[in-house]
Amino acid sequence: MVDFCFKQQQSMNQGKYIFAQLTDFLPRRVFDRIVKEHNGNKYIRTFTCWNQMLCMVFGQLTSRDSMRDLMLSLEAHQSKYYHLGFGQTVTRRNLGKANEKRSYKIFEEFAYNLIELARKSCYRSDFEIDVEGNVYALDSTTIDLCLSVFWWAEFRKHKGGIKLHTLFDVKTSIPTFLHITNASVHDVNVLDLIPIEVGSFYVMDKGYIDFGRLHRIHSQSSYFVTRAKSNMRFKRMYSRAVDKASGVQCDQIGKLENNKSWKDYPDKLRRIKYYDKEKNKYLVFLTNNTDLKATEIAMLYKKRWEVELFFKWMKQNVKVKSFYGRSENAVRIQIWTAAIVFLLMEYIRFLSKTAMSVTEVFRILGSHLMSDRKIAELINLSPRRKRCSLRNLDVQLDFGF
Questions:
Q1: Distance of CA 386 to the CA centre of its chain
Q2: Enclosing domain of residue 63
């Protein structure tokens, strides 16, 4: 059914520019409803929120470094504004004012609608570990900002920055939760905001260890996998048999020994010591799941690296390190439009059943935005290639230490 819809839409795109074909995949009615809820087009005559978003998406797809660079690129195609959906009056003043004044929540809510759409379409049933629930990787990345320009993003005395906190769905390669904060906000605070699903796994590094917050995940019948800190006091109750040839050195069930930690987490925990032959290093995992094998717990933690690949993709392909505006609202809008572009690329890649990675799809379509060829002709080049995803970048998956 999904394949049929993609082919049907492509058959209707005869003569359209690639950029116009891409934006046809964005649900316009949903966007208009969100704009209406936030009064985004109030007192606006020509340059609407839709025109604003398409200009920002164009800037992301063409990798424009600044507002001046973006406007030069847009003005080169002034005769095509109508066909590209930019409206009649695209000026530097209009776009800059829109990014400063119009609420970033319009783009945030629209991105979450795309997330739901992409997750329903991009689900994989061939996941390496047999788990019924979803598997989420939680992490954050810091985006450095110049404090003298972005005065609102104070991080340290002479440095500014923001953090992008992400909950990444490993099974679909889609981020399900994105939260932007000042860089001084500690990662562990995001555990209060992420949605908890029954039966799902939440994989995170030891920077997120707060036993009170971890117990909240446990009390909602969900599971967490993290690394234990070196100073953690753990009282073993009993051990399970292990095969040391598999890398598992011990598999223990016990409770926390420190009085404060025990009050925050009074239930049993599972402690697994694992030897990584490639790194020649011992790793100690902590989880509340007692059903999976110890090697499967280690494999789940290895999947945490995929959220790092997502951050790498964002910083290398879309513009989240150089910005078109100085205000906090403008920065947030640009980050959300970058997320929209990533979701659009993943969605199209999945619908087209191409063998290309999301990076290849992004670069090919980005370099042919003014072409009138069909998207399917550009990205279905070699049916014999093995299907790729975000995880198949030119980096080796490891534990990331």
A1: 24
A2: 2-108+325-392
Instruction: Report residue 110's pLDDT band, with 50, 70 and 90 as the boundaries.
Output: very high
In a domain, 186, yes or no: no
Number of domains in the chain: 2
Name beta bridge partners: 177: 167
The helix/strand/coil state of 11 is helix
Q: 8 Cβ partners below 8 Å, 6+ apart?
A: none
| Element (DSSP H or E) covering residue 335 | helix 328-352
Helical packing angle, 49-61 and 358-366, nearest 10°: 110
Question: Mean per-residue pLDDT for 284-302?
Answer: 94
Greatest Cα pair distance in the chain: 74
Which candidate, 308, 395, 379, places its Cα nearest to that of 345? Answer: 379
pLDDT band at 61 (very low <50, low <70, confident <90, very high): very high
**List of residues 6+ apart from 103 with CB closer than 8 A:** 38, 40, 329
The residues, any chain, with a CB within 8 Å of residue 357's CB and separated by 6 or more, are: 349, 388, 389, 390, 392, 393
Other beta carbons within 10 Å of 202: 25
CA dihedral 38, 40, 42, 47 (to 10 degrees): -170
* Amino acid, res. 197: E
- pLDDT at residue 205 tops 90: yes
Q: Does residue 315 fall inside a structural domain?
A: no
Average pLDDT for 182-189: 95
* Contact assessment for residue 332 and residue 104, using Cβ atoms and an 8 Å cutoff: yes
pLDDT at 13 over 90: no
Q: Provide the residue type at 192 as one letter.
A: D
Looking at 245, 276, 295, the residue that finishes a domain is 295
DSSP string, 166-219: EEEETTTTEEEEEEEEETTS-GGGGGGTS---TT-EEE--GGG--HHHHHHHHH
CA distance 183 to 142: 6
| End-to-end CA separation in angstroms for the chain | 43
Average pLDDT over residues 345-351: 91
Per-residue confidence (pLDDT) for residue 10, from 0 to 100: 53
Mean pLDDT of the chain: 89
223-227 and 201-203 beta bridge pairing = parallel
Q: How far apart are CA 273 and CA 300, in angstroms?
A: 14
